[in-house]
Amino acid sequence: MTAIQTIAFTDQKPGTSGLRKKTRVFMGPHYLENFVQATFDVVGCKGKTFVLGGDGRFYNDRAVQIILAIAAANGAARVIVGQGGILSTPAASHLIRLNKTDGGLILSASHNPGGIDEDFGIKFNMPNGGPAPESITDAIYQRTLATTEYHKLSAPDVDLTRLGRSHAGAMLVDVIDPVNDYAALMESLFDFDAIRAMFARGFRMRMDSMCAVTGPYAVHIFENRLGAAQGTVTHATPLPDFGGMHPDPNPTWAHELMAEMMGPYAPDFGAASDGDGDRNMVVGRGIYVSPSDSLAVLAANAHLAVGYKTGLKGIARSMPTSAAVDRVGAAMGLTTYETPTGWKFFGNLLDAGRATICGEESFGTGSDHVREKDGLWAILLWLNILAVRGGSVAEILAQHWAKYGRNYYSRHDYEAIETARADAMMANLRGKLPTLAGQTIQGMTIAAADDFSYTDPVDGSISARQGVRVVFDGGARIVLRLSGTGTSGATLRLYLERYQAGPNGLDVSVQTALAPVIAAAEEIAQITAQTGRAAPDVIS
Ligand code: G1P
Ligand code: ZN
């Protein structure tokens, strides 16, 4: 027996902006329901087809059932859902595009920890496979304030363990293998034969899936299809609490991988990805690859993969990402777009065919194959490049720096600063901007200083106040902005960069190479005096 119930929001109803919140907030009365009903009210539901899945974190299983019941009651024609309610973010983006659906709902809080006392999240992706633009997310939020009721099918849970078609009321539910279509897409882009041959010659890899969603994808692609040794993928089973790991692929949180790659028995290549599979970190034997350098190497060598053999249409990077990829773009005669932080700004460029590869310093890289960043894609492109070029990660980096010069780069994060102090610091800095050009600080002369404003070349929309940047003669640069994703207080991100031309580079550590830039940042922004912090909490 199935029946459609209409449930009034009787309790005080919070506006639901979606994105990321504590799991218990999502589990609270009607919170998820309100967001989902509002989303369907805004984007339409009757007769439509959606993709649905998430990264398997705590509450994923219940949330999927709730969404199916609301979709059915609102007249959706069909929902394509990953078996067990599982889909990585890039796989969901691909399925939306492949099946030409009306969009999709993705359950994840990305790289944030999972569990009943940790984080949960939901977002709506558009028919192009990319996250909904602000106009839609704002409309959804407004709708969550205005709705008075939601509709849900009263029926037993849909069995998501078995592949195949079933019904929820009149709505079709197609439970699909989460990995197959995505793996086929990867096989169409990369030379799997060459990578397989490399593994057959004894190439060794370590992939740390951090108990998050990429486990099954990585085992299937690396071990089953490409012949990497069994056990190559560690922490390969997605767990509701990610086994207590913080599934954020950076040297701090992926420390097990870092220790192995820097140790005496390091394999040839190491990689990690995050909760929902859109981020990646790449490490060679004894050498860490910064995401900005990774983007530059991938752009310079993408033509070695079959999916990119005709070349790139353009390159895009977020403003705080280092200029390493700009040098590749310039050498190839390509436009390199500089966008504000956040993946959504790449979507228009990809849709318009202006860019093929894009990336951020925050461990996100991707291309026009989907409309999300894609961790396994980046790792496979690295493998493809290694398989075709031969040599080690260290050699590829050394050759890259010898050709283009090196952009020493680091990000310093100051977390949970009192919001008022962080705001005051930024206001003070912004006030100084007009006077900075021409000043010499730490022996470096400031060429330009501004607050980054972006005019989207496709739709002309303007995003102002996207971060303060101070550029010095010779290519050194300081960027300061406040995080838009932090959950307690304010997080100040200080991005530091210094360019060194020539084949030999500086024979010092990255932080040492950046010492004058770090000192200049302190002198200009007065971080310690303004925030009371003597040192950053996280350095990446
Ligand atoms: C951070 C990263 C940014 C990324 C975003 C979502 O945002 O810096 O590059 O797009 O997470 O993954 P932030 O906290 O800096 O606003
Ligand atoms: Zn993510």
Bound compounds = 1-O-phosphono-alpha-D-glucopyranose, zinc ion
Structural class: alpha/beta
Number of domains: 3
Query: Which regions contain 5 or more consecutive residues with pLDDT less than 50?
Result: none
Helix content: 25-40%
SSE topology sketch:
Blueprint: E1 3-8, E2 19-22, H1 23-27, H2 31-43, E3 49-54, H3 60-73, E4 78-86, H4 89-98, E5 104-107, E6 119-125, H5 134-146, E7 149-154, E8 164-168, E9 171-176, H6 180-189, H7 192-200, E10 205-208, H8 214-225, E11 233-234, H9 255-262, E12 269-273, E13 280-284, E14 287-289, H10 291-301, E15 315-318, H11 324-332, E16 336-339, H12 344-351, E17 357-360, E18 364-367, H13 375-389, H14 393-404, E19 406-417, H15 419-436, E20 440-441, E21 444-451, E22 454-455, E23 462-463, E24 468-472, E25 477-482, E26 490-500, H16 510-513, H17 515-525, H18 527-531, E27 538-539
Helix pairs in contact: 2-3, 2-5, 7-13, 10-11
The structure holds 1-O-phosphono-alpha-D-glucopyranose and zinc ion.
